[in-house]
Amino acid sequence: PPYTFTRLESCLDQPVDSDVHEIIKYTPSPLPAKHYDPDTTEPISSGLETLEELLLWKRSEANPFNVAAFPLAPRDPPLASSLRRTLVSHDMMGGYLDDRFVQGTTAEAPYAFYHWQHIDIFNYFTHRLVTVPPAVWTNAAHKHGVVVLGTFITEWTDGAKICEDFLKDEESYRKVADKLVQISHCYGFDGWLINIENTLSEVAVKNTPLFLRYLTDQMHERVAGSLVVWYDSVINNGHLQWQNELNQSNSMFFDACDGIFTNYNWTEQNLEWMSNYGAVQGRQADIYIGVDVFARGKVVGGKLETNKALEVIRKHNFSVAIFAPGWVYETHDDKTEFRKNQDKFWALLSDYLYVHRPLAPLPFVSSFCQGFGKASYWRGQCEAEKGWYNLSAQEIQPLYYHTELEGQGWLTSRGCPEDAWNGGSSLLLDGLIPAAHTSPVSAKTLLAFIYKQSTGITVSLELKTTDANTHAQDVQRECLQLELCDCVLREVYFNIQRDGEPQDTPFSCRVGEIMLLDAASLQVPQELVQGLCIYDVVWLRGAGTSPESTNPCLLLNATLHWKYPTELVRHFRVYWQRLTGPHSRILPGPLVLVGRAYSNVFRVTELAVPDAPGLLELVVEPVIRKGFSVPESHWGRRRLRYTMT
């Protein structure tokens, strides 16, 4: 029987106030290496390599950690009404790198993406048969209202064999489509890029549009807001001939799904021709013109001239598919300059990208964490001074940009890892107010209450709502109360004004956190963490010594599962506490932070504990979006007793 659900059900059957008793055995981990690192038992994301593996896939054997914790947020404007869209296809170094670690990992200079308000669709691309997006990407994208697509790809001779097998008849292609729908629904992402890059037989090419139509219909039925996009590759006679446009040779595939992603070697003449092609009419937004940022082959733009490609594409009113923007990371040796290079690249494109905003009810909160950092902060204090990466920790991002002001003044907004309130970065506003500039410098972002500023300036806040009113407030207070009715908060500006006489005034303001609360909701009763379970325990011996023993450390690895409404929380803090050890002189220890969880499941890995016999407690604290602390009586607790026999 499936290991996960059997052991979880066994745990759920235990009384919540009883101890979990474990007898220590040093046996190989029973957890599947596909979902758990074989050395540490850390949960990892992965794809599927073969058609057999796909057809045998079962929801009961899925990776419980790779399920997205955040549903797709609604957005303004809705994707359906966006006439010129932006798709990003993330193809970097084979995929499943640092991002494969579902709970994050240590990393000194990782790749991340945080310009979500400029893109509409995110595709995670590898050359495996089935690419399941890592949950960390889906979580970050969904918070910003961005659709996430996995990839189904066949290539070369092996790909042709796979296609002949699953496209031979209706029963076969429906089985594959059904599995793709089930995988997307299970893991919480929003659709597929279908890429058939091999020749097809007459029967297979005839069945391909039928496969696409069935897959698209089933996805729309099961997953709200889902998309199926076809890559421009094989054509209607079964030959592999990239067209670099939509035309009579590939329109049969386009007609059967939600869109087409063209190959990269187009010219402006291709776009001009398509503008008048009958199959395009009414569906121009569904045609994503491919742009390879690496500029391989004969292409328009690419690299730091990618903006030239976008200029031509937008001139003809098409959507764009930006392939491999990780170029800014891969090709620059100094990875510590990544943020600078990333911001420079997306600033070049910004004139041809269209901003959308996630829609969310109150409370709204963001610390501007980008999902990685040099250290980890909690309420302004450094908790761990080491590089880390976890895109699930990324919070709603502001607009990042550089603006020139009259009189050689300027303003920049960017993520700053040097100091933070929560997570790994803060929002840094810096610039120069020239002597001749008398009006406030405005930085458009969302809303802040925790900040640090340089001397010689005053910082105030300006809110703009859909009722066309402007609400200006000074930020010098800890908490502001505004009366707003029947409106939607669209934008918040920081106004930065010079104090004193006119002179060139350099400034900086580091914003640590913003929070918008509905005062009426602050009295809502708080929920309890319920049903905390401990299961899938694996014991290891690690290098090093514990204070109580000269032997290598005893390492606990275990999965925790609990119940709590995830829509109420930013994350959970998971702790452990030593209650007793092998010697009576060992006193109960303090609560020690193990890590942060972004869903109701967490894997404790390589936790050094006292030698057996011992008793410890695992504790889960919800960090709620309303900002105040949840009393300890509402936390989840479960004791684990362990012995050698």
Automatic annotation (TrEMBL):
Cytosolic endo-beta-N-acetylglucosaminidase C-terminal domain boundaries: 522-643
Hydrolase recorded as keyword: yes
InterPro entries noted in UniProt: ENGase (IPR032979), ENGase_C (IPR057882), GH (IPR017853), TIM_ENGase (IPR005201)
Keywords attached to this entry: Cytoplasm, Glycosidase, Hydrolase
GO molecular function terms noted in the UniProt entry: mannosyl-glycoprotein endo-beta-N-acetylglucosaminidase activity
EC annotation from Swiss-Prot or TrEMBL: 3.2.1.96
Cited Gene3D superfamilies: Galactose-binding domain-like, Glycosidases
Catalysed transformations (reactions): an N(4)-(oligosaccharide-(1->3)-[oligosaccharide-(1->6)]-beta-D-Man-(1->4)-beta-D-GlcNAc-(1->4)-alpha-D-GlcNAc)-L-asparaginyl-[protein] + H2O = an oligosaccharide-(1->3)-[oligosaccharide-(1->6)]-beta-D-Man-(1->4)-D-GlcNAc + N(4)-(N-acetyl-beta-D-glucosaminyl)-L-asparaginyl-[protein]
GO cellular component: cytosol
One Pfam entry name: Ig_ENGASE1_C
Main location: cytoplasm
SUPFAM superfamilies per UniProt: (Trans)glycosidases
Limits of the Cytosolic endo-beta-N-acetylglucosaminidase TIM barrel domain: 96-375
Top EC group: hydrolase
Location(s), subcellular: Cytoplasm, Cytosol
Function: Endoglycosidase that releases N-glycans from glycoproteins by cleaving the beta-1,4-glycosidic bond in the N,N'-diacetylchitobiose core. Involved in the processing of free oligosaccharides in the cytosol.
Family: Belongs to the glycosyl hydrolase 85 family.
Full protein name: Cytosolic endo-beta-N-acetylglucosaminidase
Source organism per UniProt: Dicentrarchus labrax (European seabass)
Lineage, broadest ranks: Eukaryota, Metazoa, Chordata, Craniata, Vertebrata
Name of the encoding gene: engase
